[in-house]
Recover the amino acids of this structure.
């Protein structure tokens, strides 16, 4: 049911005016044309295409003109054969079939002829017909070219806007969205699916104007020639409609599967490239190739399934038409006594009616493919990020007083608590450390402050303001984060340090690098600050990467600095220097550190011990060691008590 409607409605709005069914006002017709684009492409894509309405109309008009000109050869063929081929120089005439309506009645008409030229020799008629044919083909070619160009422009512009919006959407979605999805699959959405849309938008829209119009002009010609004979052709219509329906459904189903399999293949590329060191390290190359071969095989199978239905429709329709066409010509000769020229012109016209009808059926398949790609792309576009600015939110003033956790509980999934009932208050300028066994929830706790995730229960406030009530930008621009996993762009050192604030000049970058004790090693690189860091910073050592990340965090002059295992990859000497740098920031900034090394923790004003998502102890280093509780236990377990003063 559904696949018939867009085509029918679209055809009506296109052909309505051609039949003289006009909308009463121009606004009605513009609403009709908007509705047409909506119906054919679906509301979502249509909203992008409509932005380039001028181009769409230009393409459609040019294509419409081009399709009107295809009928010209049919009008030329009959006089060419019947008159132009006569021998001798007896004068001949060029007449074209016409309809004369009876005055006063709409449905009574008779076939007449209109004389274009008469009294010329057959040879001159042939020259004239050839000239007319050339001019009409030339006009058709020019309009087809410029129509195609406008179509390419509007469809590519629409996809360009969609591509940008999809990219912006990827960025705006919260980390929670990405945990459940493979990034390769998301890349496939923005490449393979958008490529499908790019290819099909124009084809479908133009197809729906060009093909019905071409069919219509030939049908009019045929009706004028012999309407009874033409009606015979309509016997094939129900059969063709049935075929279109069956094939359309299958094509949609299989195109969806093809795109899914494409996404799996893209995903495999992406993941393997990311983990290439692992693949080499464990010598799993052959195994990965085998795994990939299965995915490639699956993709091939699905593409072939899709092709079976996609390509099957054309030949099936050809067979149906083959049954009808010879019958029509035989009846034309035996019962209606048409001349050879007339029969040739009619056979030509019949074939030209059929061709667009067949293409229209294929357009239906294309609409199905387009709908599949649209569903996947807009599935993402419709996702609303759960972490966003509340309406009418104010900016958070620069932090001056406290950061408070008030009975905060959090779980990545419902009822699976990672943090439970966590409460504490940190004063401005304080340096606090979080310790605890792995998986205790330290990184999770830090990630709640910039709102990478929202608390499930309780609230976090900065200077007494709930962080969910202020703009994300004002919150995050105050927080410098050095994550446990260091993320770097495959760009220069300068770009990576300056990333948080590209406005800041080289001077600020160098002083941030010096503060993070990164300047010396950067200057030792062959290109200094212009050195490329490689994919994910792979050209640098772990410690170098960490120092660049620290410099990047310091550069934005944050009110709050959060360092998650930021010194873990540094040697003792560098760490000491980074510690000094961090200490230099103490007092002016609030610093939250997750660290296992005692040298870091020692300088903290307070230490929180986190176990299974709850704070079990808090106090200064001395207080906690004296408490002989969990902190002391952790400390002694790791170092047998000997290394006290070294690591926890
Ligand atoms: N994105 C996530 N989705 C679901 N669970 C997660 C996610 N990230 C972490 N977890 C779980 O939350 C718990 C706390 O993780 P978290 O990374 O906060 O621990 P941590 O204290 O920082 O550990 P470590 O010292 O090893 O870094 C762990 O049990 C972990 O499995
Ligand atoms: Mg962690």
């Amino acid at each position: 049911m559904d696949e018939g409607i867009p085509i029918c409605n679209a055809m009506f709005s296109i052909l309505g005016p051609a039949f003289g069914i006009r909308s009463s006002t121009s606004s009605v017709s513009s609403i009709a044309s908007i509705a047409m684009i909506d119906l054919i492409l679906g509301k979502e894509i249509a909203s992008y295409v409509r932005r380039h309405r001028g181009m769409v109309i230009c393409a459609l008009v040019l294509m419409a003109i081009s399709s009107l000109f295809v009928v010209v050869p049919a009008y030329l063929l009959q006089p060419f054969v019947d008159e132009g081929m006569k021998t001798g120089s007896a004068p001949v005439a060029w007449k074209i079939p016409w309809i004369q309506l009876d005055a006063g009645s709409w449905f009574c008409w008779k076939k007449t002829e209109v004389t274009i030229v008469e009294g010329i020799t057959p040879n001159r008629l042939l020259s004239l017909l050839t000239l007319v044919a050339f001019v009409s083909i030339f006009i058709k070619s020019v309009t087809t070219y410029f129509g195609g160009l406008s179509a390419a422009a509007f469809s590519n512009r629409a996809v360009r806007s969609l591509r940008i919006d999809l990219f912006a959407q990827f960025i705006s979605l919260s980390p929670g969205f990405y945990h459940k999805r493979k990034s390769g699959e998301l890349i496939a959405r923005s490449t393979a699916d958008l490529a499908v849309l790019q290819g099909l938008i124009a084809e479908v829209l133009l197809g729906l104007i060009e093909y019905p119009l071409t069919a219509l002009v030939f049908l009019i010609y045929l009706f004028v020639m012999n309407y009874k004979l033409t009606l015979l052709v309509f016997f094939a219509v129900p059969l063709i409609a049935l075929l279109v329906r069956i094939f359309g459904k299958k094509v949609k189903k299989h195109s969806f599967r093809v795109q899914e399999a494409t996404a799996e293949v893209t995903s495999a590329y992406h993941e393997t490239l990311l983990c290439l060191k692992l693949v080499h390290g464990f010598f799993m190359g052959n195994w990965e190739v085998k795994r990939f071969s299965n995915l490639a095989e699956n993709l091939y199978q699905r593409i072939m399934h899709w092709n079976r239905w996609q390509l099957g429709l054309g030949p099936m329709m050809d067979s149906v038409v083959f049954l009808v066409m010879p019958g029509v010509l035989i009846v034309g000769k035996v019962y209606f006594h048409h001349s050879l020229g007339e029969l040739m012109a009619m056979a030509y016209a019949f074939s030209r009616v059929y061709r667009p009808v067949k293409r229209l059926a294929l357009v239906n398949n294309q609409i199905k493919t387009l709908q599949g790609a649209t569903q996947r792309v807009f599935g993402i576009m419709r996702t609303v990020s759960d972490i966003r600015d509340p309406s009418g939110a104010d900016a958070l003033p620069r932090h001056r007083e406290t950061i408070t956790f008030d009975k905060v509980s959090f779980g990545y999934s419902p009822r699976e608590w990672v943090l439970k009932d966590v409460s504490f208050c940190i004063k401005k300028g304080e340096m606090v450390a979080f310790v605890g066994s792995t998986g205790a929830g330290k990184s999770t706790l830090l990630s709640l402050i910039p709102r990478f995730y929202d608390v499930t229960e309780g609230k976090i406030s900065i200077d007494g303001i709930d962080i969910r009530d202020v703009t994300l930008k004002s919150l995050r621009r105050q927080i410098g984060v050095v994550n446990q996993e260091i993320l770097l762009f495959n760009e220069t050192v300068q770009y990576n340090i300056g990333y948080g604030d590209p406005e800041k000049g080289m001077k600020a970058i160098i002083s941030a690098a010096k503060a993070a004790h990164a300047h010396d090693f950067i200057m030792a690189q062959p290109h200094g600050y212009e050195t490329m860091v490689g994919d994910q910073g792979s050209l640098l050592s772990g410690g170098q990467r960490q120092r660049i990340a620290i410099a990047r965090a310091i550069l934005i002059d944050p009110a709050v600095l959060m360092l998650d295992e930021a010194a873990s990859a540094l040697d003792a000497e560098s760490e000491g220097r980074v510690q000094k740098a961090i200490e230099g920031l103490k007092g002016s900034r609030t610093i939250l550190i997750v660290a296992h090394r005692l040298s870091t923790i020692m300088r903290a004003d307070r230490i929180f011990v986190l176990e299974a998502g709850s704070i079990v102890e808090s106090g200064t280093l001395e207080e906690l060691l004296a408490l002989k509780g969990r902190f002391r236990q952790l400390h002694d377990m790791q170092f047998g008590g000997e290394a006290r003063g070294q690591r926890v």
User: Anything to note?
Assistant: The longest strand covers residues 109-120. Residues 122-172 form the longest helix (51 residues). Residues 393-478+560-567+594-648 form a domain with the Rossmann fold fold (CATH 3.40.50.300).
